[in-house]
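Morning run. Coffee first, then this:
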Amino acid sequence: MQRILAQLEKLSERTVFLLLFGYALAIRLPFFFRDYIDRDESTFILLGQSLVEGNLPFTVLWDVKPPLIFFFFAGIIYIFGKSFIAIRLAGTVLVAVTAFFTYKLTAQETSKKIAIYIGVLCVVLQSLFGSLQGVMSEHIAMAFLSPALWLLTKKGNSIWISLLIGILTGCSLMVKLNLAYVALFLGLALFYMQLKKQKSIYALAPPFAYGIGILLIIALTFAPYYYDGSGILWWNSVIEAPLAYAGAREYSPWKLLVYLLPFFGLFWLGFKKKVFTLSNTTFFYLILACLGTILAFVKSGRINGHYLILIYPIILPLLGILIAKPFLRSKKILAAAFLIFILAPAESYLEYYAVLKHKIERHTFFNGEGIAVPNYFKKKGMVTDSLYFAEYHIGYWLLDTPPPTKAATQPSNVLKDEMFFAYDNPRKTGGEELQFILEQHRPKHIITRKNRRVFDKKQYAANFYIQLQLLKNYRPLDTVDNAVIHQRLQR
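And here it is:
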């Protein structure tokens, strides 16, 4: 074991990247064949497909995310077609890129061996525990921000490098608007660091270039809408709607403590042991980036599991630096790292078994209701031009059929009336939108989850209304795994 560990110090950066990519591929591979990992990923795919067909995001289909996400998915679909494997493989590359730059940030202050451990842990934390096996907006954002952070700690004083850092940060911002505080803090930090080096007008050049890089990306995402005469649609969808969405929901800040205490504990230990010092450039930028991310969490009022992808690549180098110090370095740490490497992917092991079992029983690796339901319609030769997927909405993509309305692009958006203004929805409330879908659009088939509420349990009126409509105007046609297909009665 010691001999193997010693060899880690001799690995080239290319080999380290391939190692991280190989590990990411091994633990994410069985999920390449699943239809439905997270609602967000399915929605991104739908908007990406719409973009491939020539429609700007927000014009035909809509979701409350910056447009660069949809261009990413559109690029994959344009090149590889409708391929779950291509999308999930692209996600694996993103994970490997982020883990690699997390490794490089850690290696600046520790040994290469510990940096590799941190890189592997970054792969694990981006790939397991929840819906992280899909391609989330956070994966894309951090694949841009991680190299920006590394460049900032290494060569932030160069004007052209600062411009590149700004471009990368702008890309991350136009994927995940939550990173606005991080972008602001890093810009202020760059200005401060330059001012320390030279108290002259030239100190403004790198932070100015950084800001230009961010504005350039924002302008490039806005330009198609400006020339299309729909600039207000971009503004409302990218800026106003997320603010309205956050303001419409109340969350207890105390619930955030469960997530944030470990991070504050890490800061406390690092400063107490005098391992972290703001005079060190790497620490300075990483800690400010952490605080910017935490502030975004506090302002949004909640932390979903996949939100933490935004902070793992920033906090992990700090953890690696702590582990490298004598008071935490021991054989027990090495043994724990080895156990993480072997035992952490338990979800992957179970999914490998499930995929192989599915292949034996059904003669295909691809699984899930979002695939099974479209296959059912195709096998029966049924008309699919009037469908409403209240769940498993990736089915729209596989059947080449659009959602009944813009709001229905993402099933839960039907009831989020605080964002209807962003795309000039004719209906003003979620109740009106649902009523329009069921009583005016009248889909021939509605797909729901078996023995589950259609909407969140707090949406009492909406759940009661749709169940009443299903009882009055539909009959259960068939059950496909855990999906129920309801067919409209002929009247």
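Strands lie at 387-389, 445-449, 474-480, 483-488. Good start to the day.
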